[in-house]
Every structure is written in structure tokens, then in C-alpha cells.
Design a protein that fits this description.
Elements (H helix, E strand, L loop, with lengths): L26 H26 L10 H7 L11 H9 L4 E5 L8 H9 L2 H15 L1 E7 L8 H6 L11 E5 L4 E6 L2 E14 L2 E7 L3 E8 L2 E4 L4 E2 L7 E5 L11 H4 L22 H20 L5 E4 L30 E4 L6 H18 L3 H5 L7 H7 L1 H28 L3 H4 L5 E4 L7 H13 L4 H7 L4 H18 L26
Antiparallel strand pairs: 1-13, 2-3, 2-10, 4-5, 5-6, 6-7, 7-8, 7-9, 11-12
Helix pairs in contact: 8-9
Length: 510
């Protein structure tokens, strides 16, 4: 059995094939084969994680270059990758859920979303999926859904009918999904594996059962009795970035890396946004290193002198005749000539770096002004045109991510016994707009739509308001209508009561 994987480790795993005597389709077969596949892809996940966090390698630098300047260039890392990924992730904002012919957002679905902290955790899932090609959502009943005590009941994770299940975001280094050979949308199993101190734990999710394992010196052992899965489906939904019909292999530039195990490493059926730009990032780092070396040894103006008698010490070693400084003046005997060499022009490097950054922006559809910071007083139309590629990329990401979230919600409703919503495949997510517009552009577009008869509620949606905000708008309009008598029953204010009559003054005493 392969040794435990530790994310961030610099050492590749020694892959050990699963036992050959396992019966196909048994829990032990899925456990060993999924654990093997997880080990096989761990080095690729580690590579993408290193590049995202700025731990780059001087891939294009020769050995003599690294030996001569390696110490000086250890800290150099011009990391553009987080910006290219976050520029799209920050525009993926679910705002509500609609089921069937509902005109308003579904309150129960939004409560499930809120109680699972997915406003904060969903961007984590989107980011990991964009980095590695795939992340996962795990849906399972919450063991703490019925807390005890007065304080616990205040924070009970329950709806009016049933306990709200947990939806957690899972990293691809700890969760792997096995798809059916004949149907890539059908899931046969899923394995979650993680470390608890020095102990490695695993949970295997099958359509009809849940199995729990622990790894010791003798291999995987059951750590408790299997549980029942009443849903009949694997409750793990993959979030797939750039979906592929067959596994996407990493580029040759990545498979040749010394710490990457094999050219067949892949993460699910997704493709990393980093796969096409790591080579470009390496080129930018190499050019930056060259520029740093040039600025160290050739950018300073070097002086020369001829006809100068150079003094020597007792063993004949020449002595430096001058000390170069701002407050130093070089003086020599008659017949000595001075001059200087031209400094190296660093613009050759900066121009090359800028070209590579532009190439990176074009291939990731990141607006140039995000990377180069060169936009000045641009009009709204110019900004919209510059960000059109990014908006289109975000719209493309919403489709596979949205389908995964909708399925996760259906599984959650199935656990809650809401059969109608659990089987409703017409559910859809209300996303925030992908485009960046000025307030005046929004208002102008909405006024024009209103003039052709578009209902107000649709205009609110087009303006980017969430279903929850639209619901509040309706309540406000209803209160205004009642206050202004729009329903034929004017709101009347009772006349003020007359001031009380002061008591009569007492008669003077006789």
C-alpha cells in the first residue's frame, strides 16, 4: 500500500499497485484502486499548488547559471497565476435558487446554502477546481443537527420539517470520485482520505453503503461497522472546470518536471486553468532573473584607465588604486586617460517580459489592464470591450459549476425528505452579473427595457439583485401601496385627542 500523501511535500510518492486478488466492485477493491489513483495524481496537484502559491522553479535556467546565481535568485518569483484565476472566480457569485415555475427565490434552498457557510466556502471550491481541474462537494446528514441544551437549540441546523444536511467543500488531494465506465455522469464510488495526526483515515461512499477505514502497518483496516446509504446514489458531486469527455493529460512541459510522477497524471475530467500558462510563467521568471543579473553586474557604469601605474603589495599582487564612491575623486599622474563602458540597457528585458505577460493575458482572457495597469481614463465602452473575454469565460464556468451545485441541492433535499424538490431537474441558480457596468449604464438599460413593457421584477433580476433582495422590494412596495391608499382603502390617521380639561381651581378658604 502506498504511504500517506502529505500535500506540499517535495518528495514524489512511490506508487504501489493494488493487490491483484481483490474482487471487482467490492468496497476493498474501490478503496485500494481509488487510493492508488489519488497517489498517482498527488504530484500533479502538488505542482499546481506550488505554482499558485509562488514556489516556482528556474526551469529554463542552465546548470551553470543556477550554480553561479542560484543563491541570489532564490527568492525571485513573479507570480501572475493567482491574479489570472481570481479575476474570474471573484465574479462567480450565486445569489439564490429557483425551482420549476417559481417567480421568487426558494427560501429553503437559500437556507441550506447559508447554514453551510457556502457564501464563504463556494469561492474556495471554485478556486480549487480552477487550479486543479476538479474539486468536490460532499453532502451528508449533519450529526450535530439536533444539539442538546438551550444554547444548542438556538443554533439548531433544522428547517421546519427536517434537519439540514451538511455540504462541505473537498480538496482534490483528499477526495476522488469514480465515474461509471459507461456513463460519465453516473458515480460508482467516492473516497475521502485525510490525516489525523500520524494516522491516515478514509471513508468510502458507495450508492448503498458507507465504509470507514484506517491505515496501519498491515494496510487498510475497517475502523467501524459500515453505514447505510438510503439515497441509492454517491453523495459526492464533482465541480469540474473546463469539462472534458476523457481525462485531460497535463502538457509535456509539466510531465517532464522531475517531481511529477508519470505523463498519465490527471485530476478527474476537468482541466486546470494553469496548464497552459505555467510554461509562460517560467519564461517570465527566466527573463526576470536575467534582468536581475544584468542589473547586478552590467547596469552600473564601469570605468577604465590607461597609462596608470598600478601599485603592488609585497607578493606582487596588484592593489586596487581607487575606491569608487560619490564623495571620491580619482587623481593620477600626467599621461593617464580615463573612460567608461556603457551600461547594459535593461529595457530589452522589460520589453520581453511585457510581451510574455500579454501572451499570458490573451490565453487566460484576463483583461490587459488587470496585469499591466496601463489603463488611463478609459470610457465605459472601452472597459467593457477589454473585459468581454473575461465575462465570456465566467459565463462558461457558471454552466458546469451551476449544474454541480444544483445537484448538490437536490441531494440535500432528498436527505430532508423533500421528494418534489429532490427530483426537480429544472432548478437553476441565480448568478450575479458577469460584466462590470457603471451605474449609469445599468439605469439607462433598465429604463429602455421598462419602456417596452418588461416587468419590474425581471428588471430587478437584470440589475443583479438577489431573490432575497427582490422579496424585500415587494414587501416595501406593498407597504407603500397600503400607506398611499393604492388599494382603495386610504390610510387614515385618527384625529388628535383634545387636550385634557384642567381641573377647576380650588376655592379660597373662608
Amino acid at each position: 500500500m502506498a504511504s500517506p500523501t502529505i500535500p506540499g511535500s517535495a518528495q514524489p510518492l512511490e506508487l504501489i499497485q493494488p493487490p491483484a486478488d481483490l474482487e471487482y466492485g467490492t468496497p476493498e477493491w474501490y478503496l485500494h484502486h481509488l487510493a492508488y489513483e489519488m497517489d498517482a495524481r498527488s504530484s500533479l496537484i502538488m505542482l499546481y499548488g506550488d505554482y499558485f502559491e509562488g514556489r516556482h522553479k528556474l526551469t529554463f535556467a542552465s546548470s551553470p547559471f543556477r550554480e553561479a546565481f542560484g543563491q541570489m535568485l532564490t527568492a525571485i518569483s513573479d507570480n501572475w497565476i493567482p491574479l489570472t484565476i481570481n479575476s474570474s472566480i471573484e465574479r462567480l457569485k450565486p445569489q439564490g435558487f429557483l425551482f420549476g415555475d417559481q417567480e421568487e427565490g426558494d427560501k429553503d434552498a437559500w437556507r441550506i446554502w447559508q447554514e453551510n457557510y457556502l457564501d464563504a466556502d463556494a469561492p474556495l471550491a471554485f478556486t480549487e477546481a480552477a487550479k486543479h481541474g476538479e474539486a468536490s462537494l460532499l453532502i451528508w446528514p449533519d450529526p450535530e443537527a439536533k444539539p442538546k441544551g438551550i444554547f444548542g437549540r438556538l443554533f439548531s441546523r433544522r428547517s421546519d420539517q427536517a434537519a439540514i444536511p451538511r455540504i462541505t467543500v473537498e480538496h482534490p488531494s483528499q477526495m476522488i470520485v469514480c465515474r461509471s465506465a459507461g456513463d460519465r455522469r453516473k458515480r460508482d464510488a467516492a473516497l475521502k482520505r485525510w490525516q489525523e495526526g500520524d494516522t491516515e483515515m478514509a471513508t468510502l461512499y458507495l450508492p448503498d453503503s458507507i465504509h470507514y477505514f484506517v491505515l496501519d502497518d498491515n494496510g487498510w483496516k475497517a475502523r467501524r461497522e459500515p453505514g447505510e446509504n438510503k439515497l441509492g446514489i454517491v453523495p459526492v458531486v464533482p465541480l469540474v472546470n473546463q469539462p472534458q469527455m476523457i481525462p485531460a493529460r497535463p502538457p509535456t512541459a509539466l510531465t517532464s518536471a522531475p517531481h511529477l510522477v508519470g505523463a498519465n497524471a490527471h485530476v478527474g475530467l476537468g482541466r486546470s486553468d494553469m496548464a497552459d500558462i505555467i510554461s509562460t510563467v517560467d519564461q517570465i521568471n527566466k527573463l526576470l532573473c536575467d534582468m536581475m543579473v544584468a542589473s547586478e553586474v552590467a547596469a552600473f557604469r564601469q570605468r577604465w584607465a590607461t597609462g596608470l601605474d598600478v601599485p603592488e603589495n609585497e607578493d606582487g599582487t596588484p592593489i586596487q588604486p581607487f575606491s569608487a564612491a560619490v564623495d571620491r575623486l580619482w587623481v593620477a599622474d600626467e599621461g593617464t586617460s580615463f573612460g567608461e563602458f556603457a551600461a547594459t540597457d535593461l529595457s530589452n528585458y522589460t520589453n520581453a517580459i511585457e510581451k510574455r505577460v500579454q501572451s499570458l493575458a490573451a490565453r487566460t482572457r484576463t483583461p490587459p489592464h488587470y496585469l499591466l495597469g496601463s489603463i488611463v481614463n478609459a470610457s465605459g465602452d472601452a472597459l467593457k470591450a477589454a473585459e468581454a473575454g473575461l465575462a465570456s469565460k465566467v459565463e462558461g464556468q457558471k454552466k458546469p459549476f451551476g449544474e454541480a451545485i444544483e445537484e448538490a441541492m437536490r441531494i440535500a433535499f432528498a436527505f430532508m425528505g423533500e421528494d418534489q424538490k429532490a427530483s426537480d431537474r429544472s432548478a437553476e441558480i441565480n448568478w450575479a452579473p458577469s460584466e462590470t457596468r457603471s451605474e449609469s449604464e445599468y439605469i439607462d438599460a433598465l429604463v429602455k427595457k421598462l419602456s417596452i413593457g418588461v416587468p419590474k421584477e425581471q428588471l430587478w433580476r437584470d440589475a443583479g439583485y438577489s431573490p432575497q433582495e427582490i422579496r424585500r422590494f415587494k414587501g416595501m412596495l406593498l407597504q407603500e401601496a397600503i400607506a398611499t391608499g393604492a388599494f382603495g382603502v386610504p390610510q387614515t390617521t385618527p384625529p388628535p385627542e383634545p387636550p385634557p380639561t384642567p381641573p377647576p381651581a380650588p376655592e379660597p378658604a373662608a
